[in-house]
Design goal:
Blueprint lengths: L13 H17 L5 E4 L11 E8 L2 E12 L7 E7 L2 E4 H11 L5 E4 L5 E4 L8 E5 L10 E6 L2 E4 L1
Antiparallel strand pairs: 1-2, 2-3, 3-4, 5-7, 6-8, 8-9, 9-10
């Protein structure tokens, strides 16, 4: 499982907790391990209605997350609900490989155009990167499907 480094702990400031959560969500989007760091505004409070921007860097690529703070959860005053939306997606070569080999256990290999180790791409939109699945005993057809970045990881369209 892809996780951010150690949790900041229960006594950490709200901004530190949020940075940790957003680093984990960025790793999930990339679908591959990588070096992450995050910054949210100092002194950020968990006040309902607050909107802010936090930045997460994944292997040198910067994603900005728009964060909207909501209510405390009905079952706990210690749990704050929030919505966070990234301004772009991260697509990784390793993430695409994990997707393809995880979904097509009987494939022989995949032919992809030069997917970089990591790239910023529009979120939930077909990218310029494409892959064709080749099954054992079959020849490539030359028809590759585009891949896209989602918050849940890379997807083949």
């Amino acid at each position: 499982m892809l996780e951010a480094d150690a949790s900041p702990g229960a006594g950490a400031a709200f901004s530190e907790q949020l940075e940790y959560e957003l680093r984990g969500r960025t790793l999930k989007m990339a679908g591959a391990p990588g070096a992450t760091s995050a910054t949210c505004p100092d002194g950020l409070e968990s006040s309902k209605g607050t909107t802010t921007t936090c930045s997460v860097t994944y292997d040198g690529l910067k994603v900005e997350w728009t964060v909207r703070i909501g209510d405390n959860a009905a079952w706990s005053d210690q749990y704050v609900q929030y919505e966070a939306t990234p301004n772009s997606g991260i697509l990784t070569r390793d993430g695409v490989a994990r997707l393809l080999y995880g979904n097509y256990s009987t494939m022989d290999y995949a032919l992809c155009n030069d997917i970089p180790a990591a790239a910023l791409v529009p979120l939930n939109t077909e990218s310029k990167y494409r892959c064709e699945i080749v099954f054992p005993g079959k020849q490539p057809t030359g028809y590759a499907s585009p891949v896209r970045a989602t918050e849940a990881g890379p997807r083949a369209v």
